[in-house]
Amino acid sequence: MQWDRRAMMQRLMALSDNQQMQTIPRWSTSCMKLSALLVLPGLLVSGCAKDKKTPVQPSPTPSIENVVNFPPEVRAEDESVNEFLLETITTCLEKDYEAFRLLWSARDEPMTEEEFKRGWQANPKVTVKAIQKMRSSEGEIVYGIRALVELDPNKVPEPQRDVVLLFVKEQGKWRLARPPRSLAKVMKGEESPSPSPEAEAPETTATSVPIATPAPTP
Predict the structure, then answer these.
(1) 173 phi, psi to nearest 5 deg
(2) 152 and 158 Cβ atoms separated by less than 8 Å
(3) I need a surface site. Which of 46, 51, 105, 110 has the fewest CB within 10 A?
């Protein structure tokens, strides 16, 4: 009887141990699930942070003083022309194509966004060579602008470009336009200007072309 009681006690203790062992995993499982719920978001965020590539910081916009050579002797008498030219170059340096499009005449089409980005990401240096005041065939005052643009030869196939643009007024504001080919050749010195009886004293050496003649100096 003594042995049976001892055996029974051992069985009860064993049964108790089994119940504790069964209870502990349930409690542990619940805790593990709760811990997972609490820790998992942090792990996900941490994992995403590791997997996510660090965004490339845009390079700072270079100072216009370090990019543009605009000698006083070529500046227009109309200061608004000089200001619009600097505004155009600043917009290009900021690589803002949509703002660049807004600077163009509604009668003309600007360069494509691909051409714009390719050119102005190549560390340009701009030298303004001439600003020519003219009168269009409609009698409006326009300005021919010639500039030499030097680009990084490692980024573009043509690192040096001789650029001519036309400034025209629309709704009281200057806008960019493509010049006639004849005007571009005259301003680059590739063609001699045709004589213009109306022009007595042009502002610069470039004179008349079929579509735009130099405006006489008052």
Answers:
(1) -125, 145
(2) no
(3) 51
Q: What is the mean pLDDT of each run of 10 residues along the chain (218 residues)?
A: 55 53 47 45 45 55 81 96 95 91 92 83 86 92 94 82 94 95 91 56 37 44
H, E, C per residue of the chain: CHHHHHHHHHHHHHHHHHHHHHHHHHHHHHHHHHHHHHHHHHHHHHHHHHHCCCCCCCCCCCCHHHHEECCHHHCCCCHHHHHHHHHHHHHHHCCCHHHHHHCECCCCCCCCHHHHHHHHCCCCEEEEEEEEEEEECCCCEEEEEEEEEECCCCCCCCCEEEEEEEEEEECCEEEEECCCHHHHHHHCCCCCCCCCCCCCCCCCCCCCCCCEEECCCC
pTM of the model: 0.62
Three-point CA angle 188, 194, 197, nearest 5°: 130
Q: How far apart are CA 65 and CA 194, in angstroms?
A: 36
Please write down the long-range contacts of 86-92, taking CB distance under 8 Å and 24 or more positions apart: 88/176, 89/64, 89/126, 90/64, 92/116, 92/120, 92/124
